[in-house]
Amino acid sequence: MHELSLAAGILQMLEQTRARDPFERVAHLRLEAGALSGVELSALRFALDAIAPGTCLEHAKIDIDEPAATAWCKPCGQSVAIRSRLDPCPVCGEFQLQVTSGTELRVMELQVV
Predict the structure, then answer these.
(1) In what order do the strands lie in the sheet with 105-112?
(2) Who has the most CB within 10 Å: 20, 26, 72, 89?
(3) What are the mean pLDDT values of the chain's consecutive 10-residue runs (113 residues total)?
(4) Whether pTM exceeds 0.70
(5) Which residues, in sequence order, are CB contacts of 93 under 8 Å at separation 6+?
(6) Are 25 and 65 in contact (CB under 8 A)?
(7) Alpha-carbon gap, residue 77 to 79, rounded angstroms
């Protein structure tokens, strides 16, 4: 379950931010985990909830968005939405796709008090 280590990394980043710019706690955290990021959203949410007590994340509202992945099709030159790295291009049916988004895990919004 690598989501626990991801949650620990997110908390560590928040604590480092708190050390630089002091705040009491996180009120709202919005994350983005792309469709091809390899992150199981329910497991990440569970891990964040599990490590939150006694930290700046305790009582925080946490939202996790999962944007669709996109890829560039080399044969037809189109940017297309994909659900898997194994998908063919929905325009031309070819498999020469270069993923351009959907692999990221990032903090999109942080509200603190």
Answers:
(1) 61-65, 26-33, 105-112
(2) 26
(3) 93 97 98 97 98 98 97 98 96 98 97 98
(4) yes
(5) none
(6) no
(7) 7
Q: How far apart are CA 14 and CA 96, in angstroms?
A: 39
Report pLDDT for 105. 97
Architecture of domain 2-112: 2-Layer Sandwich (3.30)
C-alpha span between 3 and 42 (Å, rounded): 9
Taking the C-alpha atoms of residue 6 and residue 38, their distance in angstroms, rounded to an integer, is: 11
Token pair in block for residue 79: 């940017």
CA distance 98 to 94: 12
Rounded to 5 degrees, φ, ψ at 48 are -65, -40
